[in-house]
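Co-fold these.
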Amino acid sequence: MLRINLRALSHVRQPLARPLGLSRSLHQHVSPKQTDFNVIQSKIDPLSADFAEKKKGFEVLANKLASIHEQVTDPAFIPEKIKTKHLAKNKILPRDRITALIDPGTSFVELSLLAGHEMYGKDKVPAGGIITGLGQVNGVTCMIVANDSTVKGGTYFPITVRKHLRAQEIAMQNKLPCLYLVDSGGANLPHQADVFPSHNHFGRIFFQQSRMSSAKVPQLSLVLGPCTAGGAYVPAMSDESIIVKGGGHIFLAGPPLVKAATGEIVSAEDLGGGEMHSSVSGVTDYLVESEQEGIERLRECVKNLNYPQNNGHVTYNQTPAPIEEPLYDPKELGGIVGDNLRISYDVREVIARIVDGSRFSEFKAKYGESLVCGFATIHNHKVGILANNGPLYSESSLKGAHFIQLCKQRDIPLVFLQNISGFMVGSEAERGGIAKNGAKLVNAVVGSGVERFTVVIGGSYGAGNYGMCGRAYDPRFLFTWPNSRTAVMGAEQLAQVMESVRSEKGHADALRERVEHESMAEFGSARLWDDGVIKPEDTRKYLALALEASRGGVRQKEDTDFGIWRM
Amino acid sequence: MRRVINSTLRSYSTKAASQSNASVQPEILKSLCVANRGEIVHRVCDTASKMGIDTTSFYTEPDGNLAFSRSANNNLNLGADTKGYLEMDKIVRLAKENGCDSIHPGYGFLSENSEFAKKVQDAGLIFVGPPAAAMEAMGSKSRSKEIMTDAGVSCVPGYHGENQDPKFLEAESEKMGFPVLIKAVLGGGGKGMRIVESKADFQKQLASAKSEAKSSFGDERVLVEKYIKRPRHVEVQVFADKFGNVVALGERDCSVQRRHQKVLEESPAPGLELYSADCRQKMYKQACDAARAVNYEGAGTVEFIFDRDSPNGQFYFMEMNTRLQVEHPVTEMVTGVDLVEWQLLIASGRPLPKTQEEIQADMDKLGVHAIEARIYCEDPFNQFMPSSGKIVHMQLPQVGNPRLDVTFEQGDTVSPLYDPMIGKLIVRGDSREEALKKLRLALNEYEIVGPTTNIEFIKRVLKHEGFRGNNPTDLDTGFIPRHGEVLFANEGTPSEVYVQAAIAQAFPKALSAPSILEAANAFSSVGTAGWSSMQTREVTFKNGKESVVVTLTQLPGTNPTEHTFAAKVGDKAIGNVTASHFNGKARFKFPTGQHVNTVVSNDSNLGNVNEVHVFHRGTHHKVELATPDWITAVNKRIGAGAAAGGSFNDPDALEVATPMPCRVVRVTVKPGDVVSKDDELLVIESMKMETTVRSAREQPTKVKRVAFVPGDLVKQGSVLIEYEE
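Predicted complex below.
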């Protein structure tokens, strides 16, 4: 045996002495940590005077917004008389209802808190009189739409209608079950002309309900207060409805109008109370005796939707793994961006404070440098990021279009970090076909099919807004930072243009001031140009929640058709 | 980790050989069966196995999932009948069929039944215990006294005769003077025992004692004795072999008793040397004389009543227990002897391994003080009401490496059919003081949720001034009733405990290890985001008639595995509390410090799902979640019954429901009767213990309905008596 083995070995050639420098280039093993060259190396010095000054400027803006938000959400700001009256009827305050509804220990992503801010003169309409947001109920992410009857009896101002419609749109796009906590006096009559008849007015709510239902988006109503006239259709068009005895009333016309119209004298309870609707008309399906019971019943109804729960499976083929926080403190973002849009910074510093492990796999880093593109993960969701590092040139537009196509084909959602003064102007740019190349970017954004999320982290001007997936380009969610400005162009330039067109001198300053005011974050947010102003440090959280809401649960994927066009 | 026996087995064969006259030693038992249940089965099997003896155990079907029912090499089913452990013929037959040569009776059940001992012997098996004649002699209290008196052992004056005429017994009692003690002739363990303070009470107490004696022992005969006001219960462990050798293995003080059941047992009995230098030796001698007088063999305990108030330490023979006692571990600790090993040697026909001098020398050398706490399922804070049910959580103490002889494990169900003792905790120290301190630390770690236990109560006893130190100032059998006010005082619940209970209730996920899926779900892991989207929740607890409201405002988290709350209890701000999971427990960071505690809540196996248990700084706190009005309203509407539980003490309840499964012994009232506070309604029995149920109504109330008749078995939560409104 041994001898045979020895003989077999004799066939092996003796190794030759290796000539120096000509050895075979074997792969030398490296540990995954050694190859971690995607980690963004921050150059920010949080101890520098420059940083401190920018931070200070930013905080002025942030503090102002914090105080507005506090006034909107803190029950201490509800007028005492209204609050007492509300509580005396054994009713729970609207935000407390939501707290009771969602799973303890989970986030409630309240949207558009600034809706209606300073829009109606001396009429204050905090949060637009309606609370909307994403919440987890028995493990299922839901869109919650709750009338705030402590604000003008929960009546619908024009902004209320728009916020309601926006919530339905989010539910529809992201296939989120929609829960209506109904407690509204219907259309706000003095504003009826701006609420009732037009395309995106009150009627559109029920049109949407029907569309959502046909798209298999579940809708449940809990009737806690009046649902008069059109409002009656919210529960009536829901899949299932719960009504609180004594509190909830559904009728096409309330007792006073019935008396005026037909002379019939009838109590609200007999006309449209829970007992009647649950046992006679069948308009409602569950009768409950208290709001708490109604909320528990609603939670139970969500359980029975048989809807997929949030489970951390971020993509169909990915196993969940522990989440890595960014290496750099997101709280530093304020000091990085500051309050002056003219002072530039490297947008990678922002990315480093948003993505998992501050890891960013950059695409085409040396080409079209004013648009930074690359892959990263946020709470384990793979995302494609497009972030501005200057105005959009032809090259950057082409690069963006190319990158979007990659993401589309790979089913990777897109995150746009907008800080854009616009597409490059001037003869060189025009001769280079900026219009044509910009169009490619816009076209890629629209046709990308995957979920898009936009955060306005600085300026959002002109066609840059479009190329970087502004509101009109249907991002699933759009959030803005306190320092952001949104306008067709900078206030200064706008004033100059107007001056040159009108050749009127005196108006320039007033115009500049007005445009400056209109481009502020709170102005836009009040008008639902976004889904809310967020603190930069919360960006990562909001994106994680938005990704979970969009890509978790039930999801409809759009199909791709062309191959990738290299640009 | 079931139990630890610290005594090491010594080489008994050489020791025995040196003492025996016979040139050929009798062989050690080959196959032993243990006719008992619970921890003693483990205890006996462990030593038998060490000696190379094959073991067999018995169990009834209700016990079929307890660890002891699979602890022996061979485990035999006695069937569904709960009285299986008393079926002598079956046990003997099974032992024989399964090739056993001997039976160890443990304690309780058949251990002191001479008829059983005879049956064992008649079947050709060895009974590990004394001869039947000795058992018989000591089994009857009246006869044993006669024998003892003849043997020169001092006895308490009393009537031990056959005349059971109630009038005669009353007259005898008057002769010796009240207070007197009525005891069942065949009694033991406090059953069928009554103290009568005055002549007026005598007949009623006699009837009650006779009834309990009848149900416990099948014999209603009683004896009457003079009652010593401040007695200590001191007993001597004796051992005798077939060759007439008798030794004493120290004494035990078992004075801390409730309802005549021992709670704490220790050795040596503290302070005897203060009465007289030879007090102990005198007692040992009398104990050995007592054993000799009945030709005793094996392990036995001679119980004395020690009169605390006598100047020279006067003691009287009370009775002799002809078995291995529950509290034998403390003797093992102070003597270094494995008592079961000695029992098995003597049953094998071997001589005593040690002389009295050698034993004394070992004890002096060890210089140990040992103490045992019996862990009972009962509620000391509610008249020691027996408790049963599933053990939802159990943590055995580790600190100081204590000895644990336990019957139940986590997940086991304590049945109301058997004894409420679920285990024993034994520690030792170089002094009494040290032993007590170690016991206290071990009890702080001893956590049981499910049935109510006496662990908290034992901690109270240990804390009491009159029990502490090397020479306790107030140790006698009246200790518990005398200090009831302090021992049973409501010590209140710290705010921190309410906060922990509230977090456990409202945010159970904060305290458990998040699954990787849960951690990856952004909604549960990012914490609150936004400007001020804080969620505030209230958790309301019931504290007697008051409610305690804990307000928790969820704050933005910094770490996905931690949850931070701004907490308030009532109007008192507690500050920010961070809750997380830590090594299977809950970790709470308060502004003042942090705790890693066990919190049990929301467990449907608990008798009352509203209970929240918090083990905080060595104390077991139980708080109860209030039921909001709207839930009460819903339950009423859907016809759901009140929460399972029931209580005898709710003055507002118009229904008296039993908090435990029980058997109705006697019904005192009938519909139409008007009862006032503390009037007797009925007597129930649970866990071998009779409980008198009394009216808790503040105002005289008319009885509307009596739901059961004597003999009925009643489920937990069932209504026994209904009042008219």
